[in-house]
Amino acid sequence: MEKFRIGIIGATGYAGVELVRLLLLHPLAEISALGSVSFEGKKISEVYPNLLEICDLPCLTNEEVIAQSDVVFAAVPHGMSQELAAQCIQNKCVFIDLGADFRLSDEEDYKQWYGGEFKFKGLHDAAVYGIPELFRGEILGKVLLANPGCYPTSIALALSPALMGGFIEPSGIIIDSKSGVTGAGRGLTQTSHYVDVNENFGAYKVAQHRHTPEIEETLSRMAGEKITVTFVPHLLPINRGILSTCYVKLKEGFTKEHLRAAYAHVYKDEPFVRILPDGLCAAVRNVKYSNICDISIHVDERTNTAVFCSAIDNMIKGAAGQAVQNMNIMLSIPETTGLELIPPAF
Amino acid sequence: MEKFRIGIIGATGYAGVELVRLLLLHPLAEISALGSVSFEGKKISEVYPNLLEICDLPCLTNEEVIAQSDVVFAAVPHGMSQELAAQCIQNKCVFIDLGADFRLSDEEDYKQWYGGEFKFKGLHDAAVYGIPELFRGEILGKVLLANPGCYPTSIALALSPALMGGFIEPSGIIIDSKSGVTGAGRGLTQTSHYVDVNENFGAYKVAQHRHTPEIEETLSRMAGEKITVTFVPHLLPINRGILSTCYVKLKEGFTKEHLRAAYAHVYKDEPFVRILPDGLCAAVRNVKYSNICDISIHVDERTNTAVFCSAIDNMIKGAAGQAVQNMNIMLSIPETTGLELIPPAF
Amino acid sequence: MEKFRIGIIGATGYAGVELVRLLLLHPLAEISALGSVSFEGKKISEVYPNLLEICDLPCLTNEEVIAQSDVVFAAVPHGMSQELAAQCIQNKCVFIDLGADFRLSDEEDYKQWYGGEFKFKGLHDAAVYGIPELFRGEILGKVLLANPGCYPTSIALALSPALMGGFIEPSGIIIDSKSGVTGAGRGLTQTSHYVDVNENFGAYKVAQHRHTPEIEETLSRMAGEKITVTFVPHLLPINRGILSTCYVKLKEGFTKEHLRAAYAHVYKDEPFVRILPDGLCAAVRNVKYSNICDISIHVDERTNTAVFCSAIDNMIKGAAGQAVQNMNIMLSIPETTGLELIPPAF
Amino acid sequence: MEKFRIGIIGATGYAGVELVRLLLLHPLAEISALGSVSFEGKKISEVYPNLLEICDLPCLTNEEVIAQSDVVFAAVPHGMSQELAAQCIQNKCVFIDLGADFRLSDEEDYKQWYGGEFKFKGLHDAAVYGIPELFRGEILGKVLLANPGCYPTSIALALSPALMGGFIEPSGIIIDSKSGVTGAGRGLTQTSHYVDVNENFGAYKVAQHRHTPEIEETLSRMAGEKITVTFVPHLLPINRGILSTCYVKLKEGFTKEHLRAAYAHVYKDEPFVRILPDGLCAAVRNVKYSNICDISIHVDERTNTAVFCSAIDNMIKGAAGQAVQNMNIMLSIPETTGLELIPPAF
Q1: Sign of CA pseudo-dihedral A143, A148, A154, A159
Q2: Which of A37, B16, B20, B202 could make an S-S bridge to B10, C-beta 3.0–4.6 Å?
Q3: Distance CA B164, CA A43 (A)
Q4: Which residues between 227 and 256 in chain A have a beta carbon less than 8 angstroms from any beta carbon of chain B?
Q5: How far apart are CA A101 and CA D26, in angstroms?
């Protein structure tokens, strides 16, 4: 079988370089070209010396990347993907966007939270939102995909079975998420200076994070009604990983056993979701460096509150890994190809 | 002025050794004796070489400590303080308990959550629960004090003004707390092994932590009605610090401005509480190594949810520092004596 | 091709569980049995929940492991491997020891540094010391192998070409090594408590570490004369990785260019050694989660001192990865099989 | 006693803000003005919210600071202090420079390593190099002081008694130092990005660090002959602290006991130097947040090498604390005033 030629735009960002690593290990993919505006002309291994002698490809322009690829991944700041998508589609190139431009179906939401507009409405109609465990059927055969945000992935997987089954109240959902620093990207900011992060912990953008409408759109689809959530992200002093602790009101008559049964059913054949047995809490450690999402289910019977903890590696299931999973589905490759990563014990 | 002779029982635990450090710097206190069951006969500086040539006192028996002290602090596992308290009171010694034995006023709660009973009911009646900002008037002149738990301190300070003012619904309170590892103590357990904690993050004892009844008792006192909360603690890969993110429903008609005014009023003369200006979120970094509690107030208008973030140093305001603050009040010493610790920038 | 049946004794230690992970990904190996004295009867995934649904094998006795395997790895405390080796050899099982029992050829050294003796002298004669880059020819076809220590691996690779080429003085070698905490093992000790390690750094066992004779034996072999070194290990607040900084006197007439040429020659076909270009220093980050050793070469012309920095992942090239590399050679499998791990950027 | 009016130029850098913290606690000092080019017009507590309500002074121009102060500390990049010193001296202001401009007595060294020149030679003649334990007599009464670099402080204290006593060979000294990230400053660089530092470790500027001539000048003064060293710094994933491991050849006839006696003698009345008992190694943990330097003495009898480990808090004894110590001496205040900081256990 001939390998698919893969181009990565924004290859020197954190999601980009993680894509490079995953695709180098993918048996049916061949990285054909890397694009980087900041490092054009440099080798990727000059920017990331971990790749020395493993991938010494030069960074090219976006146009060069598109011209040389069957599939293009873009990991660029929001607002920059729409033009790239248009070029790719015109070039008969599959386009997978790791940014936010195609994630929201409602242009009003996009305007309000990102301050931009939909430049090519047809593309937005053609785009599919790629959480395979929830929308696998829609992804197959598509050529334009919006890869979900890291927080939304962890939350959608944690809450969807409960919403689908009608076990929980649709209002009053509280989501307290915590993310490692790679989520903030490679750019230099005071808030990602080592001394600011280390031995520190705090919330940021309380109830104002741009992932909020994306979270709500997915949860609303799963619930079949409009869901509004309170979402508070925090910054963890670790490199990788997200833990989302989700608090919801259990509807009368339902117990943890109902929830466990529903989750077991919904995820029973999913290669990348584990429902943890009673007594275990989802933790970042057990999923990092893998494409796995761990979910633990708890019920506080004193207050009738269900608590779902979900853990993912924000750069894999929350970015590059899920993007490859989506690519596999789009290209009709077995879904786990290149993603059989075992989370190390440490 | 003659200095008070201070004894510390359980001096080689984390709270104990932090008490040693604070009291060495206290101008009106003199450490008269240290007690440690595990290290009896050893110098404290053999256990903690940071204290070499600064405090080389030997570890004595509890009886010796009590005999040589005007004030005794005990930082020992729950269940062990009641006898100590009885001995101290008999010896006319002020007793400050950093453990849980005297925190709960309801023996049923103590039985249910700690599995023990009240051995000396008179002592329990005489004991005062010591959050100075809320109960200062009751602390003055007392000789037996229960120093609050670390999580309860952070939460009581965060929510009390809102409950006292009637701004928030008393039901449906969600508290998502995160603590550094010193909270788990010096004992050797797999969960405090460096490799287990580092680059990891997760919840533990979801809705089952023993601090729950203590939190509820204080919040109920402040609200004037029975409060039940959902409390989920998490373990942070840092040494010190607690951040509690508290989610409550704002009652109709109230806004962030009402909350800000109430908090400013309640805490306006408090030396150890800071209400942060809009735009800042409470963070562990800004309070560690100090006795300060930072509180930030946020309102999610989309869901009418108020979010309070509070940050403390779990070993100071959450343990040893608050204990010294309480001692100062009990002894009619100026309350900030020995506690003018400036949180370092890093 | 039928897969080799692999048994792992000491599977619940850090080196053991890393072997599990690597061998699960090895296309020609099948884990047949896991052994653990501490956790006999439990599933490995109960001890390490990262392996849940990935490897749920139970922990068996050592005898059961040996009976079910073609190749046995042992990652047990020193003194325990000699009996295991004897049983394996008797059972026609290949034996790869990750401990120290077979590393030293001189029994006197073993007695002096480890306090034991050679129980089966014939086994010691049959054993080969497995640093493939230096002793590949001797490894092929052997059935009993001593996998090197983590520090010795990093040091032998850093200094061997210089010693083989006669570029440096054989006396006065100073080795300052720094290791992550996994090197100290999973056992509970005060020195691996999170709070003791985090935000700390110091040396330990200065000039007294048991790896010293192993380092000296290999360097002596490479130099063709007796080498004695000063070796000082330090504990780093990280999970994985070793950096060794080696200081040697450059012989008159030699320059950095001579060294670079020699290192390029010796390692030119090595898949797991990278000689870094000028301007880069070997760093743990660039090799962790891989079997690669990075070496940077520096010369201080003011003092005529050559400085070699070498970085490895202590659990992979310093333990489990090198053990698999050795297994591949012993079994005439392509050497890189199962080890094509790309170090992630973070 | 009237308090000295203290100005701090460069107050928003790491050394500057640490000076702010220490001087706020100094009973004989009053911070009169803060200077910052980057944040002029902002309050220091806007840049460092840990100082909120504790120090809300605005950042002024350098000229304003000098005009309002009896003593000026400058913590600015090298090359910028000479003009400031001239202004201060003219204004009869004591000047303490935390930068490198006045540390080297030989202008050639300054040119070679820093690329600048001595603008006011008279000032350089008047300046004193301030390691109190070695040069106390020269500091008293001076008005212009060069506060030493962090690495040089840790190294000079570790090696001076051995050199003064003639116990060690003056050639072949190897110094392997490791520093926390605050040493690199608050500025945004890729090498201080959290993700680059965390779980990483490596050397930098091998044998090329600008502290080298400063180290050599001090060691040469102590030895009474020209000393050249090999100095290799490394970056530690911690906020604070330096550990220097120094390797020297012991002269024939001398033993560890000679060294211990000499060190005990030289430092016997020093409030900020501790010579550790046998069995302990100097470690960052035991000195951080204090002005203490811990030194442990080791001898490798197999190679006749003495190893000195010294640990300091790079921001206190290595910067702000030593600067205050020097100020105290210059102003004839008791030397430990404001510096009785007890290193916390964690």
Answers
A1: negative
A2: B16
A3: 62
A4: 228-230, 232, 234, 236-241, 243, 245, 247, 249
A5: 55
Question: Hey, which bits of D239-291 come out as E strands?
Answer: 242-249, 273-275
Q: Does C200 contact chain D (CB < 8 Å)?
A: yes
Label the pairing between strands B59-60 and B29-35. parallel
- C-alpha C281/C-alpha C284 separation (Å) is 10
Chain A residues with beta carbon closer than 8 angstroms to that of C346 = 14, 182, 239-240, 315
Could you give the ipTM of this predicted complex?
0.97
Do D174 and C204 lie within an 8 Å CB cutoff?
no
Torsions phi, psi for B35 (to 5 deg): -120, 140
**Nearest in space to B161 (alpha carbons), one of B244, B248, B49:** B248
- Going by their DSSP bridges, the two strands A242-249 and A273-275 should be labelled as unpaired
Look up residue D13 and give its two tokens: 């850098």
Do C14 and A53 count as a contact with CB atoms less than 8 A apart? no
Q: Which of B150, B246, B293, B309 is catalytic?
A: B150
For residue C193, give the amino acid letter: H
Domains and CATH numbers, chain C: 4-126 (3.40.50.720), 151-314 (3.30.360.10)
Is B59 one of the catalytic residues?
Answer: no
Q: How far is B57 from chain D (nearest CA, A)?
A: 15
Q: Which residues of D touch A199 (CB under 8 A)?
A: 239
D24/A24 Cα distance (integer angstroms): 56
User: Which residue in the block uniquely carries the two structure tokens 């202004």?
Assistant: D87
| Phi, psi for B275 (deg, rounded to 5) | -95, 120
pTM (2 d.p.): 0.98
Which residue among D88, D150, D246, D309 is the active-site one?
D150
How far is the C-alpha of D339 from the C-alpha of D318, rounded, in Å? 13
How long is chain C?
Answer: 346
Q: In a structure prediction context, what are the per-residue pLDDT tens digits for chain C, which is 346 residues long?
A: 689 999 999 999 999 999 999 999 999 999 999 999 999 999 999 999 999 999 999 999 999 999 999 999 999 999 999 999 999 999 999 999 999 999 999 999 999 999 999 999 999 999 999 999 999 999 999 999 999 999 999 999 999 999 999 999 999 999 999 999 999 999 999 999 999 999 999 999 999 999 999 999 999 999 999 999 999 999 999 999 999 999 999 999 999 999 999 999 999 999 999 999 999 999 999 999 999 999 999 999 999 999 999 999 999 999 999 999 999 999 999 999 999 999 999 9
Q: Token pair 């400085």 is at which residue?
A: C307
Q: Which single residue is written with the structure tokens 């803000």?
A: D17
Kindly list the residues from chain D whose CB atom is less than 8 angstroms away from the CB atom of residue A239.
194-195, 198-199
**The total number of residues written for chain B in this structure:** 346
What CA–CA distance (Å, rounded) separates D233 from D75?
A: 21
Tokens linked to B56: 């080389």
